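Usage

Read records sequentially. Each one opens with the input sequence:
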Amino acid sequence: MSLTLVLAAGTLLPGCGVLPGTDEDRRTVTVWLMRGSTSAEFIERFTTDFEKRHGDIDLEIRLQEWTGIGDKVKAALKSEKGPDVIEVGNTQVAQYVDEGGLYDLTLESARDLGMKDWLPGLAEPGRYNGSQYGIPWYAANRVVIYNKDLFAQAGIEEPPKTRAQWLADTRRLDSGGNQGIYLAGQDWYTLAGFIWDEGGELATEAKGSRGVWKGSLHSAAALRGMEFYRQLQALGDGPQDADEEHPPQAGVFAEGNVAQIVAVPGTARAIEEKNPELKGKLGYFPVPGKTAAKPGAVFTGGSDLVVRGKTEDRRSAVAVIEALAGEKWQKDLARTMNYVPNKTTLASAVAGEEGIAAMAAGAAQGRATPASPQWAAVEADNPIKAYMSKVLAGGDPATEAKAASRRITKELDVSGS
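and closes with the structure output:
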C-alpha cells in the first residue's frame, strides 16, 4: 500500500470518517467560574492549553458574580440547557445535591483525581451521603498576621507553636498601649477552629438518620473552645458585639498598635495600603494547635468544581475538571492567586511565600461547616454570633450554648417542625 493510501485510510478511523477537529466533531464545554476566583491571564493560559490537548473540545468560560449565585445555579441545574461545569463555594455543595442536579463523581475521584491527598476542608463538604459531588479546586483559610516590631519590642523571637504559648505571648504583647490581639467578639469562623481542636462540633448528624442534625455548641468540648476564645479575645479591644468586618479589622491593625489579627494573608495588602509604613513589618504564622505537632484547626473557605447532572457531555465536562484540579494547573493557580492548592502534596508550590505557606500549613488541618443543605439558614441569622457576644458580656456559657444549639437544631430541621 502506498504512503498516500495509508494516510488516506488512517483519516477514516476517527469519528467514523469525520476528520477530528472539524465542526461536525467538535464539542463545546461551558464552564461557570466566579469573578475574582482567578485572573483573565490564567483563564487564557488554561483555555489555550486545554484546547490544544483536546482537539475536539472548545471551552466557553463565563464569569459569574457571587451575589445571587445560589438561585442562578439552582435554576441552571433544573434546566435542560446550562453550564456543564460550575465553580461553587465548598460549603454550597450539599444544597445543590439536595436539589438533585449534580453528577456523582465518586468513581472519577478515586480512580483519576487522587482524592486521598485532598484538603479535608474542601473534600468533606463536597461529599454527600457517601458520594463525592464536589471536586476541590482551591482553598483559603485564616492565619495569624502579626506586627514584627511589636513582637520584637516584647522580646518574642519566634511565633508560638502551641495555643498555651500563644496565649502567654499575647499577654506580653497586650501592654503599653498596644493590643495583644484584635479579635472581634463575633468572629465565629475562628471560634469554630478552637471548637474543632477540642473535639467538638458546631452541629452533628444523628447516626443513621441521613439528614437529622442537632446543634452541638453545648457539648463539653465546644465549651472548652469557647473558653479559649474568651481568654484570647480579652487580650485586646475587639468589640464584643460585632464581627471582624465591623469595623474592618485591616483598618484597625493599620493603626500600628495591634500586635496580631486572625485573617487570610491577603488582608496584609489592605493593611499596607492604609499604612505604607508597615510594609516589610508583617509576619504570618498558622493558628497554633493544642500541641506543637500540628497547627490548629481552621475553617477552610474556597471552591469546589461540580458537573451539572443534565449535561449532554459528561465525559468532556469531567476532562475539564481533571485538568483544573490536576497538578499543573493547581500550581499555576496557587502562584497566580496566592491560594492553597487542593492537595496537601502540592504545598511546596507556595513554599516561597510566607503568608501562603502559613496558610497551606493550616489548610492541612482545615474543616468546613456542617454538610447540611440547610446550613445557609443558620448563617442567615447566625445564632453562633449572638451566643459569643452573650458569653463575652458575662453570660453563663452553658446556658447560652444550650439556647444557641436549640436555634441551630431548629434551622437544620428539614421537616420544618
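Summary fields computed downstream for this record:
- The chain has 18 helices and 13 strands.
- The CA atoms of residues 189 and 299 lie 6 Å apart.
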